[in-house]
Write a structure and sequence with these properties.
- It is a single chain.
- The chain has 5 helices and 17 strands.
- It is of the alpha+beta class and 257 residues long.
- The strands form 2 sheets. Strands 9, 10, 11, 12, 13, 14, 15, 16 and 17 form a 9-stranded mixed beta sheet that branches. The chain has an 8-stranded mixed beta sheet with strand order 2-3-4-1-5-8-7-6, covered by helices on one side.
- Strand 16 (238-244) and strand 17 form a beta hairpin.
- It starts with a helix and ends with a strand.
Length: 257
């Protein structure tokens, strides 16, 4: 397959990275939960491993640095044709830049930004590392959605910066939920939640990982030191589990129907 055929379209989620305080402990947790193996191919920006599922890269895990220590978190990266130009759009549209744009060796060029409500996300201009589009395979990231206090300003920001088209989600008629599209492809969501839900983290992106058995996965999370943050819930898309890992990073699991 050619590089052009596999390069994610601009605005498409193309990678997720966990920044954790104890990298080996996080590797053990996600190995048990999602069946990940690891390699150390990407070391340009410090201690960092790629998670592999079935031999294919699906996510990255790295060590948090700095004082005071930032909370552990999963960060989605969106494909950018030009990370520098997209970073300028972030600033012009009321967002902020925390990192970069900068080169990650030959792998690509990246930036870490935040939208006007403070939700962090990454930009990835592919070089040698094209990223990985979300798929439905077990143990892989399948969806990402923004949890925020409102949808209108947020959808305008991501439309301007990443080219998303926001449409109401017909399968969730009672929720303030928008699905984001690139052309006719569903790529992400925005859900308005109450301020109490965002007390600990503020607005943030939440990544969903596919699992074959939601009940068994919830039991594993609790046994390994994570926390289930709400009851298992059936949805039009499958059975959902909301949780945090042992360092408190929010995660969601989806057992597809």
């Amino acid at each position: 397959m050619t590089e052009a055929a596999t390069r994610p379209a601009p605005g498409t989620p193309c990678w997720v990275s966990l920044m954790a305080h104890d990298l080996p402990a996080s590797q053990r947790f996600y190995h048990e939960l999602l069946g990940w193996e690891y390699d150390t191919d990407m070391q340009a920006l410090g201690p960092y491993v790629r998670a592999l599922k079935g031999g294919s890269p699906v996510a990255g895990l790295g060590n948090l640095a700095g004082r005071p220590p930032a909370p552990a978190a999963w960060l989605p990266y969106f494909a950018a044709e030009d990370a520098d130009e997209t970073a300028m759009l972030v600033r012009d549209c009321g967002g902020t830049l925390a990192v970069g744009p900068l080169d990650a060796g030959r792998a690509g060029r990246l930036a870490v930004a935040a939208d006007p409500h403070g939700a962090a996300f990454g930009l990835w201009q592919a070089g040698k590392h094209l990223g990985q589009t979300f798929s439905a395979g077990s143990g892989t990231p399948v969806w990402t959605e923004l949890l925020t206090v409102e949808t209108a300003q947020s959808q305008t920001f991501y439309s301007m910066v990443l080219g998303h088209e926001a449409r109401p989600e017909p399968l969730l008629p009672d929720a303030d939920y928008l699905t984001l599209y690139i052309k006719d492809d569903r790529v992400a969501g925005i859900e308005a939640v109450d301020e109490q839900t965002l007390t600990e983290r503020g607005a943030h992106w939440l990544t969903y990982f596919s699992v074959p058995d939601a009940d068994a996965s919830a039991w594993l999370i609790s046994r390994m030191g994570g926390r289930i943050t709400g009851p298992l819930r059936d949805s039009p898309f499958g059975v959902l589990v909301h949780a945090t890992d042992p360092e408190g990073a929010p995660i969601a699991l989806l057992q597809p129907h």
